[in-house]
Amino acid sequence: MLDNLDHFKCLKRGTAGAINIDPLQRGGILTPEAREAILEWADGYSVCDYCTGSLEEIQTPPIKEFVREALPQFLEVDEVRISHGAREGIFAAMHALCQGGETVIADGNAHYTTLLAAELAGLKVELVPASEGPGYRVDPGGYQEAISRARGRGERVAMAVLTYPDGNYGNLVDPKAVSEICTDAGLPLAVNGAYSVGRMPVSAKSLGADVIVGSGHKSMASSGPIGIIGATEELATRIFRRSKLVPKKELEMLGCTLRGAGILTMMASFPAVVERTRRWDEEVEKARWFAGEMERLGMDLQGDQPHGHDLMFFKSEILYEISKTAKKGRYFLYRELKKRNIFGIKPGLTRQFKLSSYQLSREELETVLSAFEEIVSNHPKA
């Protein structure tokens, strides 16, 4: 079996020059500077040549300046560390700040990894329910009700998590309102900013977040998996506490996190990421225009109206009806888009799907719209 391994040598995606509309990837597309950095630092633990025991203390390349100064200023938070992703940041916060058997409050649109993190940390979860479609809204007041429900059962509530925005519909719940409820209840608030940090202006201070996490590979033009976690000075002493057995290492980070190309791509992209967050209003305007054109074609936008994020969730009965008689059935939409060099909607989805307009030009989005219009007009419905 090990005599024929040549098929491992050619690992091309086949998407060169394509229009990528995948919400998971739009904010993670590398900048030219990051592509250069990944070649320079791709070998193994490349940055460890310069490490004296703590990743965030490395001065060449300037990781210390990036982690200790640039990222805290960017997020307006006291301390930041690099993580393997947003989910690892959420787990670190839960594991450090909560005790087994306690309860975490989370929004009903929370990413599944929030639930996994709580389960792994030995915690219970009380969800703030989202409304029915098409809005799928989470009312900030629901946090007060969820806290009361859990405490009414005699549970000890330890913290709350808000997904901002959620990864399903791109809804943006008022974080300040949630923060005020948590403060009154004596709870720290962790904001999961996997789809906001690096895409839009985000200030932990303005949001009222005690902990904030972000995703480099989703939203900070980085080669993943990589993320960041920031915390107030008070909570940072607990989340970033050092080992008693290996005093130079932080327990929740398991000593060190990203030791190679990932963190260098995040650093190389950082100037461009900072700049693009200043143009967020343009991205929202573009997303609203695109959503309106999609609805004109018979696709129904779910979530916030007017929409406030580039991540969009559409329901489409018209494409579902076409799939009943189309060649390849429910895979027809993926194949039709692929023929037009458009990628990002998962194979097999027609009745509902997500996409993103982030960092795409008006011309590219018009190409996507034309593709959908052709697909609808050229296929008979069942």
Automatic annotation (TrEMBL):
InterPro entries: PyrdxlP-dep_Trfase (IPR015424), PyrdxlP-dep_Trfase_major (IPR015421), PyrdxlP-dep_Trfase_small (IPR015422), Sep_Cys-tRNA_synth_arc (IPR013375), SepSecS/SepCysS (IPR008829). The modification N6-(pyridoxal phosphate)lysine is found at K218. GO terms for biological process: translation. Homodimer. Interacts with SepRS. Its cofactor is pyridoxal 5'-phosphate. It comes from Methanothrix harundinacea (strain 6Ac) (Methanosaeta harundinacea). SUPFAM superfamilies: PLP-dependent transferases. Its EC number is 2.5.1.73. Pfam families: SepSecS. It comes from the Archaea. This is O-phospho-L-seryl-tRNA:Cys-tRNA synthase.
